Amino acid sequence: MDTLRIVSLMAATMTMGLVAGAFALYAHTVMPGLGKTDDRTFVGAFQAMDRAIINPWFMGGGFLGALIFTILAAVTHIGRPELPWIAVALVLYIVTFVITMAINVPRNDALKAAGDPDGIADLAAVRAEFDEARWVRWNRVRTLASTTAFGLLAWALTVHGMSS
């Protein structure tokens, strides 16, 4: 059981770090860079990146992996001193997951559904409908929540090491 405990906690920490890093990269590089582009570049580039991020590395190794491995880590650490740190990390990641599915993904999907930028008559309207400011604001929240969850899981590993 101890092997499953430590492997699940390590996997939760690593996948959480990957997700936090991806959201942070969008917060400090991708969206500020895209924000300085014209409407056609913004719509086309965002559509391409959103299509590219739906892949096994991000979805399985990060976004869904962080949820699954953190749940597994919580279950395998019931009654252990690491559990409170893991539990708070899990709650923060559930918040991150909900924000992503309720706010960011619907905007991403609507932007993709607008079609090829070369065929869009009013790119400014499509970009305005996307509501860049709202997407960025909520991405900052999920970046903070997932980064904090990553730190809590790293601390849970430390607690595990101290209690072994």
TrEMBL record:
Per the UniProt entry, the signal peptide is none
Q: A Pfam family matched by this chain, by name?
A: Anthrone_oxy
Alphabetized UniProt keyword annotations = Membrane, Transmembrane, Transmembrane helix
Q: Can the keyword Membrane be found in this entry's annotation?
A: yes
Query: Which residues fall in a coiled-coil region?
Result: none
Report if keyword Ubl conjugation is assigned.
no
* Transmembrane regions listed in the UniProt entry: 6-27, 57-79, 85-105, 144-163
Q: What is this protein called?
A: DUF1772 domain-containing protein
